Structure formats: C-alpha cells, structure tokens
Amino acid sequence: MYEFNYHRPGSVDEAVGLISEDAKILAGGQSLLPTMKLRLAQPSDMIDLAGIPGLSDISVDGSTVTIGATATHASVAASSAVAGAIPALAKLASGIGDAQVRNMGTMGGSVANADPAADYPAALVGLGATVHTNSRTVAADDFFTGIFETDLAENEIVTKVSFPVPQAAAYVKFANPASRYAIVGVFVAKTADGVRVAVTGAGGSVFRASDMEAALNGNFSASSLDGIAVASDDLNSDLHASADYRAHLVSVMAKRAVQAAGG
Amino acid sequence: MTSETGVGASVKRKEDKRFLTGKGRYLDDINRPGQAYGAFLRSPHAFAKIKSIDTAAASAAPGVVAIYTGADVAADGVGGLICGWAITSKDGEPHKAPAHPAIAVDTVRHVGDQVAFVIADTLAQAKDAAELIEVDYEEMTPVVDGAAAVAAGAPQVHDDVPGNLCYDWELGDQAAVDAAFASAAHVTTLDIYNNRLVPNAMEPRAAIGDYDSGNDEILLYTTSQNPHVARLVLSAFVGIAPEHKLRVIAPDVGGGFGSKIFIYAEETICAWAAKKLDRAVKWTAERSESFLSDAHGRDHHTTAELAMDANGKFLGLRVNTIANMGAYLSTFATSVPSYLYATLLAGQYTTPAIYANVKAVFTNTAPVDAYRGAGRPEATYVVERIVERAARDLGISPVELRKRNFIAPDAYPYETPVIMTYDSGNYPLNLDTALKLIDYDGFAARRAESESRGKKRGIGLSSFIEACGIAPSAAVGSLGAGVGLWESAQVRFNPTGGVTVFTGSHSHGQGHETTFAQLISEHLGVPIENVEVSHGDTGKVPFGMGTYGSRSLAVGGSAIMRAVDKIVEKGKKVAAHLMEASAEDIEHANGVFKVAGTDKQVTMAEVAFAAYVPHNYPPDLEPGMDETAFYDPTNFTFPAGTHIAEVEVDPDTGAVEVVDWAASDDFGNVINPMIVEGQIHGGVAQGIGQALLENAVYDPDTGQLLSGSYMDYTMPRADDLPSFKIETTNTPCPGNPLGVKGCGEAGAIAAPAALMNAITDAIGVEIDMPATREKVWRAAQSAQQAAE
Ligand SMILES: Cc1cc2nc3c(=O)[nH]c(=O)nc-3n(C[C@H](O)[C@H](O)[C@H](O)COP(=O)(O)OP(=O)(O)OC[C@H]3O[C@@H](n4cnc5c(N)ncnc54)[C@H](O)[C@@H]3O)c2cc1C
Q1: How high is the pLDDT of residue B787?
Q2: In Å, how far are A63, A119, B330 from B293, measured between CA atoms?
Q3: d(CA B407, CA B409)
Q4: Does residue B471 register a pLDDT over 80?
Q5: Which of A139, A160, B113, B469 has the fewest CB atoms within 10 Å, measured from its CB?
Q6: In the CATH scheme, what is the code of domain B144-197+296-406?
Q7: B31-140+202-255+260-293 CATH
Q8: Model confidence, pTM
Q9: Do the chains contact at B712 and A179, CB–CB below 8 Å?
Q10: B5 — alpha (psi -120 to 50), left (phi > 0) or beta?
C-alpha cells in the first residue's frame, strides 16, 4: 500500500468538498483496500464515509425500502423490516461473499463499484430502484453503464438507494466457487408495472432479459421460459465459465428464481 | 489396557491451547533487534532474457539498506539451489539439473522468478524501492504444459537441457508386460491428467536471517518441515556457513503439505544477506508470492493400459507419464514422479507385470515437488481410475473386480513387480468395512430417489496404497537419495521426574507434542502434563530428518521408543542398586521397576532422582537420565484402505455435491484416534479439493498464472464436504517397534479417484480433474445426447 492522507468527514457535503482528482471515497474497503494492498491503486486521499451520521440508515414505508449508502450487507441481511417488505433483498445480502465481507461491505460501495459479478446491481435493476446521490437521483436502469462503470460524476457520492416493494421477487445466484461472487445471478420481480428480469455476472454489466420479461408478463411461471435463452455473444468467458455455459445458466437460474417467487 | 493419556487414547492436543488462544509463535510473530525488511522483485514474464538491471534510483530511495541482484549473489560465491535425489535415465545418463540460482542471473524462467532483493528499514520502503528498479527484459515464448514441452520445436527452457527433458526413466520388466498384453483377453486404456495444485499452507513461507558477529554465527528462522536438512543443504551445498556456525529454527509452522520441505531461494538470501550486512533481515511471503513461488504439486499427463484375462484377472499394466518439473528442479522434485510414484503402481493388486516410463520435463512454470502424498496420489489415481474403467468395460462390478485381484491377507510379505515388498495388510477387510459404512447395498434405492428429484447419483471406490515412513537409508540411498532417512530422538528426564523429548521430526499441524508425549506417558508412566516435546531448533535437538511422507510416528516415534528402551535399561541398573537386587531380576512396566517375584518396587521418578542425586548409586554407572537414539527402519510402511464417495450431480448446472463419504483405513496401531481422524478429515478435504475445485492454470501463450489468488483458485471449504464416516482396521506393521504405518497423506491419496469414479458413475462419462461444474455439465449433456 502507498501512503495517503486519511479524512473522516462528518457530513456528505464535507465529503464532497474533499473530493479531488486522486482522492477516493472509502466505504467498507472490501474492493478498494485489496487493490491498494496489491499496489494497483494509489489514491492521494481517502475520504472515509464511516463517520457520517445517518448514512447507514435503513427505513421501510408502505411501498419503498430505503437503504443508506454505508449500510453493511450484514445489516441489510439482518433487518427484519427489509425481510418483511422485500425478502429477496435481505436474502441476496445474506449471500454476498462471506461473513467478514458482509460485516464491512456496503450498499453504496457495491453500487458505486459496479463489479460485473456483484449481486446488488441485479436487485437494483430487477426492482427498478432509484440511486440517490448528493446532487440528484438516477434510475437504476440508467445507473450501471459498463464494466466497473456507472453514471456517477467525479464529485458525486451515493447517499442511499430506494427500492419499490414488488408483489413478488426472488434472486438466485450461481456463485463462483472461489470468490463466491456471481457467475450468474438472476433477479426476478413481479411489479405493478410488469415483470423485471435482471441478470448479473453474465455480462460486462447487469442487464435486463427482455425476452424473458415478455414471456413472464404473459404467464408468470417457470415453464414460460422454456426455450428462451439470452444470446451468448456478449457474455463473459473466463476460467470458471464460458459464455455458452453462462447463457445456459441464465435460463436455469431465471427459472429457479421464478419458481422461488411463486411462479 | 488403555490409560487416559497412554497409547490408544484420544488425548486432546496439548498444543491447541497455544494455537487456539493466539499464543502460537509463527515466523512473522518473531522479530530480531534492529531487523530490516526484504522484498523480492519478481519476474512479470514467464520467460525472458534480462538485458540489464538498473538499481540506481532504487538504491537512493528512503530507507534502503541494500539491493542484491543475481550477479551480486554469484560474485559472493553463493551456490545455487540443489536437487537432492539423483535419477538415472533408461539410457544410463544422469538426470539434467540445470543451474538454479537463488536470484536469476541472465534469464527469468517463470512468472515470479526472483530478480532482485531489496532490503530497507521498513517493508513499505523496500517495496517502494523495488518499484524503482528498472529491468530491461527481452521476452521469449514460454512453454507451460508438460506434454507441449517435449513436442518437437518447443521453446527450450534451459540451453543445456535439449528437448526440455530432465530424465527419461523406466521401472519394471517391459518384455514381461509386452507378453502379458499379447496374451490378454481384454485391454483397458486410460488417458488422464493429474491437475497442478498450489499448496496453500495457511502460514505463508517466511524467513529471518540474523548474524552474531562475535561468534561468527548465522541464525536462520525459517518455515521448514526439516530444519536440519535446511542447515545441511545451506551449509554443504550453498556454502552459507559451516554447519556448526549455522543454527536453523523452524518455530510454530502453520502447515506445510510438503511445500516447506524444500530449501528455497528466499531463506537462502536472508541468511546470506544477514551476515553481509551484519543485520537481521526478515522476509514474509505475501499470498500472491506464495502462489507464484511455493513449489507446486502433481501435474502429470498419463496414458495407462491394463491387460486382463477373460475373468478380469489383471495380467499387466503399462504406464507412460509426462511429469512437469517446472522451470527448475526443487529439492526433491526428481524423486516424486519416479520412485515415489511408479513403485506404487501395483496398488493393492496382484498384477504380475508392470512397466512404467516417466519423462520429467522442464517448463516455464513454478517448480513442482512433493505435495501431500507426493507421487503416491498420482499412482493411486492412475490405478484406481483404470480399474474402475476396466470394470465398466467388462461389465463386472467394481467391487467384484477389485476383490478378484486383491493381494490375499495371507500373502505377506508380498513382493510387487515394482520393487516394493508390502509387509502386511488386509485389503478385502477394508473394502468390506467401507461398503458397510456407506450402505453400498442401499445405493440403488438412493439413486432412484435422487432421480425422482431430477438428480444423478453416483458411487465410486478407491482402494489406495501408499509407502510411508519414508526411509530406510540404505534403500533410498540405492535409489538415488542424497541423504539418509533415519530419525533421532532424545529422552531427557529432569531430576524432579518431568521429561523433555527432543525429536528430529517437526510438527506443523500433526500434533506430535501430544502423540509423542503419549508414548512417554504409556511406556514410562510419566503424567502427560509432565512431558514436553521439543522440536524444530538445530541448536537444541539432535540432527533429525524432519517430517514428510507420513514418517514422524513410524520413524521418529520409533526413535523415541529406542531412547525409551535405553532409559529403561539404565533405570533397571539404578533400580537394582536402590533395591539391593541384581539388574537381571528387575522387571519394568509403565514406569515401575519391580524385583521379580517380590513386592519391592521403585518408580521411574525415584530412579531419575537417584540418577541426578547419585548419593546412593551404582559405582560404575554414569549419573544422569538422558538418552539419545537414532532409528533407521528396514522397510517402508504400507498404509492402505478403501474410500467410497457418493455424489449427487445437478444435470442442469453440472454442480456436484459430495453427499457421503466412507473410509476404512489400515494404519497399523493407532496412538491417538482423534488425531488420526483429524488427519483423515484434512487429507480427504484436500483430495476433494483436487478432484472438484483446485486448479493451478497457466496461460499457454503468456505463461501467466491465471489462478493466482483466492478469487480464482478454489480451496475446499467446510460446506463443500460431507460428514465423513471413518473406521480403522489394524494389521500392525511388523517393521517398527510401534507397529504403526502413518496416516498423514492417506486421505489426499485415496480421495481423488473415489470422487472421480463416483462422478463417472453418476453421469456415465469420464472427465479429468478438477470436475468443475461446466466440465460436468458438458459431459452430462454429451452423455445425454449419446443416449438419445
Ligand atoms: C472476498 C470477497 C468476496 C466478495 N463477494 C461478493 C459477492 O459474492 N457479491 C457481491 O456483490 N460482492 C462481493 N464482494 C464485494 C463486497 O461485497 C463489497 O460490496 C464491495 O467490495 C464494495 O463495497 P465496499 O463498501 O467495501 O466499498 P469500498 O471498497 O470501500 O469502495 C468501492 C468503490 O466504491 C467507491 N465508493 C464507495 N462508497 C461510495 C459512495 N457512497 N459513493 C460513491 N462512491 C463510493 C469507492 O471509492 C471505491 O471506488 C466481495 C468482496 C470480497 C473481498
């Protein structure tokens, strides 16, 4: 690790004010610190969000679950309010990495990092969530733009994410056996505006499987997905899974998710 | 009768209090006064010429104490690393051992090869400075696969090793095997790859070199399984210091699995640099470095053919193996795919004719050497997979085929056609015991139940054998070993009756501090809490050969028993004097000396006290109660058993769940059943890891290690494993005083074949390890299509 200046701002505004070209926001550190230890990242300044009051709040009202940027995966997994409103979201959080990772990793960090194999992006897109920053709100569909790329500007900090409560939802992940990130993860939600199917792990960024959504809008049952597959052309291929295999897994996981969501 | 702390008791491990409360002293917990820190600059390329190294900017960086390159090391007369086992090719030529400098001189030959060593006041400064070193490389095309390395036109890893061939070695009677095949009713063939593994000990390798200029003595702390062997090699071959001026301490060591047997560049350089600088120098591997620089395991391409008569009786076995040695020869690399491998190809069977040809080859990868089992897992894997395939080919049940070919329980000593003499065993008993444990007869019903849930169930056997207690010196010497493989022990009574056992074995997870103390408790009647086991320090313990090849109890424990015999012999003389009897009339049992036929007795504690306070003492006897013994056995030991795996495969994803595991192992006498069970659990977990999850993968074009971190290299975890059903049987080993055989590697040897055979049974096609989910899914798909 290289030397850096450490800051612990007391408010979001103060944090935004500290952002400079080579500065990095620090949340749970689960993605950032390993890259620094490997000397792949060399931030001049670290702006730790841990001291900002209220930023880790989790709240649920009738139709919306709101999760603060520094809420840990463990706190989301353990929240009975979340489990009551969107059980699939609590379950997803409980399946991220391992206990240590869940105790440190945060919603904001995961979303801002936009790892192609991360779990939360599937929930955000699958549920049609809204990302709140210090300056605006962005629809999840527009937020994730590529491999480790988001719509966030340099001086923008994610403050919270709000999720509309669906009629039914489920997330099924086929985990990388080593890292336990998603090789393929499929989030299926039945919402007032129709069915949403979001796929993570398979491509460069989370995406919606529109053919599957159409079929499920017709009939919300696993058998509606028979014969429907995503194209493998743009899917990831690595040591653990070829693009073909990933395409196959998307169908399998989607069916399992539909079943788990009562379809 | 078993006492609570004697032989046969599951005594809780004495060392665990220290380990579980964070009081273990691993290498990185140790610091020396004024210590500096070292960091290695490692090659980013698999194969490149070093055109120049510019250390000017790095030398000027803050805190830098020294920077050493290969040229500096060579200029100082430091020898290269050695390979300690000489193999002779079939044409009579000695194996090729190209130069293995501790720091590369003009060529780097694998990613992670040492290029420079930077020493600074802090570790961060050393790493910062290492980045300032400018190396001008001329990249060359690497070769990483063993089979590719022997193909015509392959890149040459070493100029002085034509065709990358380290040796082309054979064992067995080729003509007899050819004749067997000519008369065979059926021949089964098999083409398999035994995957490459990264050892992944929990504690990474580390070293501290320190120098005492007053006494001109080097002190080396290192993560070693055999500190005396390290001292010997560093002294006699590398030339670091004479043995009496080099003290090596291997403190608490967090796992080895073979990888810490070897003498590595890093510890060599720390010892050398400490003297040069007159300052302690510490180096601790980061996990990424461990992946790149620890000696890896296995990596065999093998073609095997089994000839049988019409009844499935094995007539002959022919095996051709290409063994990947990596870029350089590690300390015992050459012995692993030769004498530790082909000598076990008879397995548990009466196959009368066996011929093996092994080509050991160099590639641009990390060196490969012994890894839990070392050669013997490779042998069992070949034998047990081809037996399974033969059973399928012939339509005979795999249980029946094995039984038809087992060596009979009354056939010992049994000489195999590959130079081993098995001393004892009962193979059918182990098989039957394991079948019962897993309820083999109920399998069909369980399979039907799985099918009703859309799952495919399979069951697979592995009847393994190993040669353990690696020794005897004369035998290994005749096969090329550069060292003797005996063991030493010293049993020292203190005046007040407590005992310290000094052993040449080294414990890095095996529980010696408990098992060895049980021997003393049992045989000398000393309460176990009054026994201390000391190991790992060449300044304290007699010269010892260390721990590997499941040898510590069979060889090291036997040495302790020899020392115990000497204690008893001397104790009898003291007791006789104390009781005014003649020594011939003294009987000893469990630390009590009695005059035969009377009720007169004295205890070991009283005898020991008299030996140290010899006021009333035999006039011609030395005082003191402190005996040293060396033990060199006459044969290997031959643990054997049957493991059975049961799996359930999800045909939609290819995911394999290991749903049940049964093992019946014959380890001879068992001193501590709980520790033995732990060794089986760990070994099976490692074997399951190899079969299902672990894989060291090098990119064939760039030579980069693609699975170089835990993000991609999959270690087995608790939730990958079933609960194990374990039993032991016992045909005591006739070759050592304890009747023990060794259990440390059995699980890792037995497990891979059992699991792969179970997967084959489930999906109907054979695949190579590791049985990743995609591979299983594709195979299941193709089997399905073939069936339709
Ligand atoms: C071993 C391991 C296994 C894992 N397994 C999984 C898994 O199975 N599934 C999964 O989804 N994830 C997994 N993760 C990732 C983990 O869950 C974290 O979510 C992730 O590392 C990022 O969260 P963090 O809070 O640690 O962010 P940090 O590492 O602190 O930051 C990550 C990036 O986001 C930026 N950032 C952080 N917070 C904000 C913010 N509020 N606004 C703007 N930018 C911000 C940082 O500057 C940095 O660039 C794993 C991680 C590890 C180490």
Answers
A1: 82
A2: 55, 34, 11
A3: 7
A4: no
A5: A139
A6: 3.30.365.10
A7: 3.90.1170.50
A8: 0.97
A9: yes
A10: alpha
Asked whether the beta carbons of residue A241 and residue B711 sit closer than 8 angstroms, the reply is no
DSSP string, B616-641: S--TTS-S--EEEEEE--SS-B--EE
DSSP B407-425: PPTT--SEE-TTS-EE---
CB atoms < 10 A from the CB of B9, how many?
Answer: 19
Pairing assessment for the beta strands B281-284 and B36-42 based on DSSP bridges: parallel
- Is the CB of A113 within 6 Å of ligand 1? yes
Confidence at B2, pLDDT banded by 50, 70, 90:
low
- In Å, how far from its chain's centre is CA A103? 16
| Contact (CB<8Å) B124/A1 | yes
pLDDT of residue A67: 98
* E strands, B363-422, in order: 414-415, 421-422
Positive or negative, the Cα torsion across B514, B515, B516, B517?
positive
- Tell me if B367 sits within 8 A of B154, measured CB to CB: no
Q: pLDDT by residue (tens digit) across B118-128?
A: 999 999 999 99
Q: Is it true that domain B486-631 has CATH number 3.30.365.10?
A: yes
**Annotated domain spans of chain A:** 1-48, 168-260
CB B376 within 8 A of CB B467: yes
Residue A201 beta carbon below 6 angstroms from any ligand 1 atom: no
B421-467+636-788 belongs to CATH 3.30.365.10: yes
Q: Which of B124, B712, B777 is opposite residue A245, by nearest beta carbon?
A: B777
Contact A170 CB / ligand 1 (< 6 Å): no
Q: Domain-by-domain residue ranges, chain B?
A: 31-140+202-255+260-293, 144-197+296-406, 421-467+636-788, 486-631
Q: Which residues contact B701 (CB under 8 A, 6 or more apart)?
A: none
Q: Could you give the angle at the alpha carbon of B313 between the alpha carbons of B309 and B319, nearest 5°? A: 90
Q: What is the pLDDT of residues B582-638, one digit of tens each?
A: 999 999 999 999 999 999 999 999 999 999 999 999 999 999 999 999 999 999 999
Q: Which of A13, A101, A151 to mutate to test the pocket of ligand 1 (most atoms within 8 A of CB)?
A: A101
Q: Per the CATH hierarchy, to which homologous superfamily does domain A168-260 belong?
A: CO dehydrogenase flavoprotein, C-terminal domain (3.30.390.50)
- Are B421-467+636-788 and B486-631 in the same CATH fold? yes
- Spans of chain A below 50 pLDDT: none
> Which chain B residues have a beta carbon less than 8 Å from that of A35?
none
**B714 close contact with A: CB closer than 8 A:** yes
Task: State pLDDT tens for residues B132-161.
Answer: 999 999 999 999 999 999 999 999 999 999
Is A1-48 a domain of CATH 3.30.43.10? yes
Average pLDDT over residues B409-429: 97
For the stretch B92-108, pLDDT in tens is 999 999 999 999 999 99
State the pairing for strand pair B48-54/A207-208: unpaired
- For helices A87-94 and A120-127, angle between their N-to-C axes, nearest 10 degrees: 170
Average pLDDT score over chain B: 96
Q: Tell me the CA–centroid distance for residue B510 and ligand 1, in Å.
A: 38
Comparing CB atoms, the residue among A2, A39, A242 nearest residue B774 is A242
Residue A200 beta carbon below 6 angstroms from any ligand 1 atom = no
Cβ–ligand 1 distance for A205 under 6 Å, the answer no
Residues of B in contact with A245 (CB under 8 A): 774, 777-778
Quick check: A245 and B774 CB within 8 A?
Answer: yes
